[in-house]
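Researcher: Re-running this chain for the archive, since the previous output was lost when a drive failed. Same request as before.
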Amino acid sequence: MKERSAARLEKLHDILSQGRVVHLREAATLCEVSEMTIRRDLACQESEQQEIHLLGGRLLLNSRLAPVYDMAEQQASRYPAKQALCQRVVEQIEDGDTLFIDCGSTLIPLAGMLQRFSELTVVTYALNVANAVAPLSNVRLVLLGGLYYPASQSFGSDTMASRIEGLGINKALISAAGVDAQRGVSCFHFHEVAPKRAAIATAMQRWLVADASKVGVVRPAYFAMLDEFDALFTDAPELALTKSAQPSC
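Model: Regenerated structure tokens:
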């Protein structure tokens, strides 16, 4: 039994090493066993040698997983690049827009650029974003609450997605911790998936903002594929070729 399990894990490891995206159902089909058997195989890996993880229904190699998220570290990381990306974003914003601004550090420089508008509405579930835009007299702030997660300075709740879907959002500004052309767009924390997905589904325009350090990286919580976005704002040439760097409208 152990030999067959080891053989299945070795087969899956070889497939994942080729850069393929493997869902649990596909893994079971490839190995000619049930999904439960694959789950057992993964659970029986020795913890110190665990190379394959099941996250969000997808199999990932240990080498593709993320370190622990540190907001202070992220805030300082590549700040000039993030500021330049936000400058490109703000040029596409219009007076009267209702913006969904995602959590994390990438979009924080945008807050200081919003004073040029006469009226905006900002929807966010991120405390750091809310603190940055709250002093602006021209911005109406909608802060979505719930259980507070200090690591990402953001909130999460079971009702947040439905609240977002009930709003008229012109532009959803989405950030990510990982952007991979094949495996899609991902983040560190699973509570972020629902609001990101709701904003993508609801907004008239969906913009992904990600600096080059996020490219080729897969984080634990998958939430979208690249083709779900109308525009990609990035300083990574290899990604800029896959999607227009500016909105089409």
